[in-house]
Design a protein that fits this description.
- There is one protein chain.
- By secondary structure, the protein is of the alpha+beta class.
- Helices cover 35% and strands 17% of the residues.
- The protein has helices at residues 30-41, 46-60, 97-108, 130-141, 146-159, 165-171, 173-177, 181-187, 203-215, 218-221, 224-235, 242-246, 274-286, 297-317, 332-338, 449-462, 468-473, 489-501; strands at 18-20, 23-27, 70-76, 82-87, 161-162, 199-200, 251-253, 256-260, 263-267, 365-371, 376-382, 430-435, 438-444, 477-479, 485-488, 506-509, 517-523, 526-531, 538-541.
- Strands 1-18-17-13-12-9-8 form a seven-stranded antiparallel sheet. It has a seven-stranded antiparallel sheet with strand order 7-4-3-11-10-2-19, covered by helices on one side.
- It starts with 17 loop residues before the first strand and ends with a strand.
């Protein structure tokens, strides 16, 4: 590693909210943000720019996202349509709990009754939704072709780009994770992750992106690329088939929402964490958690307790809605009842929920885009853990996600593995309606940090009237699986002792553990964007 590796655990920000006349793109990597702006400047709209940015992230931040993962969106179109897209695949049709238990037990040398869902490997691979999700976005809302919007990503993959500090640090994980020669050939350079500033190319991924650009997303789901994906999984003991790949289609769904402080907050419905964010906001509203002082101990206590009961409920009930009925977690009536659990002291009888989904500290990438016409989109792409399952499909350069790690092999688990079922998903793109002609796309990254980040950003904007950049930069807290309340050092120095006196088990974690964030707003033709330096955050304007 270079001596210029940054201290990712500390940051200060003196940045202002970015304003632009024609469009803004906010994401976690500068070259990807520029890719989106390039599309905007060449006549594309926010949806075109979102796909271009996501595809570029596949190349310049390949640790977090790509064709082997999933994509979700929450959006408002220029003509006023508010909607959402869910493009995530399910478990293979042949992946019954019993078959997977037997396979895992044999691989790990344990009795069948001791087998648990692994964190990486073939059994964690679910059908990837990215390629068809990108294409569906362009077909339905774009003004440019899929071929056009993939060109920046193809350029970076084939001509090369210099690796940033954050991505170089994340890339190190691949040295231990990748076992096959073709995985190491695709993403390592003489067996090593790239160093800071090193120029790299990803020619295998670049060729696959070129094929998607020329032939469409079906190239990933049918024919030799689909066969390579299925062969990779099956050769490592998994059950994914080409039939599973070909059967996949993205969904356009109605978002779910609630009103907080006069602002309508939109999230995706299950199978993701959107209902957790909405329930937490409703419970927080019931107990008047919004406090005049940003980060006061009483405010943080109340919001954290609201978050705690929302996580408990979400992890008990949220799963693929095609397999289980989910109660009205986002309703005011539900919130009023759950608010009764919250008092002046930390309630340790309300537990986090499901402790074995391998999702607490997962990371991902988000882009938020707004254009002058009034299109606003929060577009989130992920492979779940860094480089996903550790499997790369043949010579395609497609690193496959490990989203199936969130399944359980327990028969009575709410998120139990079933053939075709989609796992509990962490991805939560968000949308805010401040007024009829005032909309913003936003999101916060990092596994179970995501809904907690949504709640805190909304509170910063609504309760405290902070500008967008300040709302993202404010120090954060997060409730964790082990029952502790983690806080950033900047917050702990002010209120950590007071929170401890309320019964919270307070832990100080580095700033890098509290997620990156993005924000893009269209306010009656005025465009603005914000991001934050917990990663390589960048806002590009046009």
């Amino acid at each position: 590693m270079s001596d210029h590796t940054p201290d990712l655990d500390r940051f200060t920000s003196r940045r202002s909210t970015v304003y632009a006349p024609n469009g803004v793109v906010a994401t976690s990597q500068p070259l990807a943000a520029q890719a989106g702006v390039e599309i905007l400047s060449n006549g594309g709209n926010a949806f075109d720019a979102a796909v271009a940015t996501a595809a570029a992230l596949n190349v310049v931040e390949p640790t977090s996202t790509g064709l082997g993962g999933d994509v979700f969106a929450c959006y408002r179109t220029a003509d006023g349509e508010v909607g959402a897209m869910r493009s995530c695949g399910g478990a293979p049709a042949d992946a019954t709990r019993n078959r997977v238990r037997k396979a895992v037990a044999a691989e790990e040398g344990v009795p069948i009754y001791e087998a648990t869902m692994p964190e990486t490997g073939a059994h964690t691979v679910t059908v990837p939704g990215t390629a068809r999700g990108w294409e569906a976005t362009i077909d339905r809302f774009g003004s440019r072709s899929l071929r056009d919007v993939l060109q920046p990503a193809i350029h970076y993959a084939t001509a090369g780009y210099p690796v940033t500090e954050v991505v170089a640090a994340q890339w190190q994980h691949g040295e231990d994770l990748f076992e096959s020669d073709h995985a190491r050939d695709a993403y390592l350079f003489e067996g090593s992750a790239p160093t800071v500033g090193q120029m790299v190319t990803l020619p295998k991924l670049g060729r696959t992106l070129e094929r998607v650009a020329e032939e469409g997303a079906d190239v990933v789901y049918e024919g030799d690329v689909a066969a390579a994906i299925a062969d990779e999984v099956q050769s490592n003991g998994g059950f994914l088939t080409t039939d599973d790949m070909a059967a996949f289609e993205p969904e356009f769904v109605d978002p779910v929402s609630t009103t907080y402080g006069g602002v309508e907050v939109y999230e995706l419905p299950p199978n993701n964490q959107g209902l957790i964010a909405l329930e937490a906001l409703n419970v927080a509203d019931e107990i008047d958690a919004g406090d005049p002082s940003v980060g006061s101990s009483e405010s943080v206590h109340r919001f954290a307790e609201a978050m705690k009961v929302a996580f408990h409920d979400g992890h008990r009930y949220i799963t693929d809605p095609d397999y289980e009925e989910i109660p009205p977690l986002a309703s005011r009536e539900w919130a009023a009842k759950r608010a009764e659990e919250i008092g002046p002291e930390a309630n340790h009888d309300v537990t986090f929920g499901v402790p074995d989904a391998h999702a607490e500290d997962a990371d991902t990438v988000l882009c938020c885009v707004a254009d002058a016409a009034g299109n606003v989109v929060s577009f989130i792409n992920s492979r779940f853990a860094g480089f996903g399952s550790g499997l790369v499909a043949g010579d395609t350069g497609i690193a496959l996600q490990n989203r199936g790690a969130s399944f359980s092999l327990e028969d009575d688990h709410p998120n139990r593995l079933e053939p075709g079922k989609r796992p509990f998903h962490t991805l939560v793109p968000g949308l805010l309606e401040f007024d009829t002609d005032d909309w913003a796309a936003f999101g916060v990254m990092g596994g179970y940090m995501q809904p907690q980040g949504h709640v805190q950003v909304v509170s910063n904007l609504v309760d405290h009237g902070l500008p967008a950049q300040a709302a993202l930069d404010a120090p954060r807290w997060r409730y964790r699986e082990d029952g502790t309340l983690a806080v950033e050092e900047r917050l702990a120095s002010r209120i950590g002792a007071k929170l401890a006196r309320k019964g919270h088990d307070v832990r100080v974690l580095p700033a890098s553990m509290f997620g990156g964030a993005q924000f893009a707003r269209w306010n009656d033709g005025t465009l603005s964007g914000a991001t934050e330096p917990r990663k390589d955050g960048q806002v590009a304007g046009y």
